[in-house]
Amino acid sequence: MKNKQFTFMLVTLSFLLVLGFSTQALAGETYKIACSLAITGPTSDVGSPYAKGVEDYCKYANDEKLLGDDKLECFVRDDGYKTEVTKRNFEDFLDEGIVFYLNYSTGSTMAMRADFDEEKIPVLPASFHAGNLIDSTYVFLPISSYSSQAVGLAEYVVAHHKGSGKPKVAMFIHPSAFGRASRDDVKKAIGVGLGIELVEIVEHGKDLDNTAMLKRFQSKGVQYVISHTVQPPVATMLKGAQGLGMLASSFGQSGKITFLGAHYAGGPDLIGLAGSAAENYYWTTSYKLMTAKGPGTDAQLALAKRYGRDKSVGMSQNYTNGIMVAQVAVETMRRAKSKGKKITRAALYEELLGMNGYNAYYPLTTVGPVTFSKTDREGVDTLQLYMAKDGVFGEVGAPFSPEYVKKIK
Are residues 260 and 403 in the same domain? Predict the structure, then answer.
């Protein structure tokens, strides 16, 4: 009798074990990605909506079963814009077994390039600094670099300048590698024939009064200012120019200054900071804005609503940023799965390198396709120019690719 009971217990236990393994198999695999960024501290105005974009798209991928029965687990952690904290976060993420990493700042991306290569993990940062790609194999820029954007703005100035002679341009840049790279590439473009006169380059401080700088620009005949920094100092400069009566009311207006900016130096949030002083500000990025009607913008607003975000988040280009990098990460997994590959860092890296030609990725959050290869790790190659009018940034012309970027590479 005892033997029969024991045999029954073994059969029952075996059944339960098989049931457990079957349930686990049906549940699918779990793939882990992570993001470290400045949700608080400097640039939190960018980092906070960016983090929400990453989180929401990861939820969406699971809810809509974009990876079938497999799941995505996404770790998002604040680093306060401190490289040493970013590095600790990254090490913790590695312990979790992540297969894809989303970094944030220029400083931390530059400092950790060797770590990324050592770990052989694909990385998409929020920084579009061209220098991130130097001495690196695993860092990919989501969109056109800051340098490409600044050169593109300078080309637009040349093409639309109505005065005689070369347009006189000043650059207003961030006092870091983040700002200086665009300065260097604009100089290179001038060296191979870009027809502007670069009158002055200012690495801004934390000044709340730009009166002396602006008057100096005016005395030197500066007609255009190209900014490559973050929004607050640009807003301060624009308000100062407005107070001095220097703002151009039309592109290249004689005796006034036309202001332009690259990605983080503009966008809808700038209008909130600068108010009416942002009117007629020209700005470029590779991302679509919510003012550009279409399936991509409709989908973004629906995503924000679905996960309880307020309208200001849903309208932010930084929310778009976060969505897009998560989109690319998920797309690499989807493509690898479709080929029967095990989801590993190596497999996802391979899918990124093959994302070109007929295999380009169209995420709808950008104005052009995402393309990568062994020789090109700068994602979306096209830019869209926007201009602030009546408190809203609207498209100016069609997406374009800067010509001089190809000449200086």
Answer: yes
